[in-house]
Amino acid sequence: MAETAVEEAGAGGGSGSAEETGPGSALAEETGLRYGSASAEETVAVEFRGDRSGRAPLTWGQRAIWHAIRRTAPNDHYFNIGRVLPLADRGRPATVAGATAALTALVERHESLRTRLELSADGTEAAQALAATGTLPVTLARAQDPAEAERTAHALLDRLSATRFAYASEWPVRAALVAVGDRVTHAVLVLCHLAADGHGAEVLVRDLRLLVRRGSAGRPPATTPLDLAREQHGETGRRRGAAALAHWEAGYRAAPATMFPDPVAAPRAPRFWTGRIVSPALARAVAAVAAAHRVSGSTVLLTAAAVLVAAGQGHRTAAVMPIVGNRTSTAHRDLVTTLSQDGLFILDTGTAGASPSPPTFTDLLPTAYRAALRAYRAAVYDPAEWDALGERLRTETGAEVHPYCCFNDMRLVERPAPPGPAPTAAELAELRGRTAFGFPATQERVACRYCLHITEEGDALAVSLTADTAYLPPETIRAHLYGIEELIVAAASGRPLPLTGVRDLLETTAEEEVRA
């Protein structure tokens, strides 16, 4: 799924049209300068020379995202990953020459930025081709003052993110610099998801900052995408992939064929809507519940989402596909590539343990934690073999087997619970007064029915749900997001909701939206 944190790109267009006209247009054509409402732009050619060239199959992570891109095209700009790096906040001033030299070093350091897709003549087979040398076009925008520079940087982020990559011919990174006078204030990176996942994007931001400030980012990564691909397609990789897919087959057989089997409404236009809730109360509650039950905050959120999906659709067993970073190996910590793949989280909501009182959401957390660990361990496999498993089960059962229910915790690290006592029910109730909700985006096509993303915004958690409105109308999207907040805040307040009441919670919240 696409990355959507605060500094990341949205799908909207930015400023600065290629069709601008006016007194400066002739000069722009002659010099490469572009004039928007306030900022002038030019293109700087950044030449690079790496250590080697080569060719290899796609890594399993690349193959997985390539399959998703093809299913989502022509709206696959959804997968672009964008970052804005402020450079005027501290340290020595960055000059244009220094910043372009840092970009050169960044591309030379990380082979994924010099790697393009290589397609067979019929377009059915894909490989990766690493180039040793080349030229990266970098947009240089001139702003009048820091405030304009900030606006310009985010407008560039939007504009560079708004179009799909030409995967076989374009370098998988688009870069821009914003300068006030002779000082570069911001760098903008937009990445093709074949080249990096969210963690890889943060590695690039870190390394670019170090290259600008110090001229060095330290030792190079321990491995490369080409070497990883060759390892995965070897005997050891195939054995590991087979073990992972055995988990998937067992999970598929234990769960419903899909979480959302039947449309419930006429689809809206555009068909896919994104709802987003920003909640300081949820941030505090997740940390408190995780600490109290000795699980991760991500497990708390994943369990809440799974419980709501299962209850809303009348299933006892939930099947959710968490996006797994696959960064446990030391060699992969600083590797810029797409390592993320789907895991399969299976939760039987009828196994909440024996208790004289009705089981609650928190009773599921120990089971859910173990299920999440199993999902994470089985998230490295060949997507072609995964496709074959799905087709075999379709033939066997006569129905498509796919949860169409995804969960992506995009936080690189979890904030621990703050020191001191857990928040009281009164404190959480007061914080809920700051909860904000909206529908910030729509799009025509996404290859899923329920895609939940977790990010942070200041002291709040931001949870967004992109859903197919034929299966989850807007009022249901809203109900699921408020339902996650209610389930977890209630648990942190000492009054966990019985599982038998979860469907009523969804229906009541949806009705409130309709009445509003």
From TrEMBL:
In which residue ranges is the amino acid composition biased (Low complexity)? 17-26
Segments forming domain Condensation: 55-337
- Region Disordered, annotated ranges: 1-29, 216-236
UniProt cross-references to InterPro entries, sorted A to Z: CAT-like_dom_sf, Condensation_dom
Which Pfam family, just one, is annotated for this protein? Condensation
Tell me the protein's name: Condensation domain-containing protein
Output the superkingdom of the source species. Answer: Bacteria
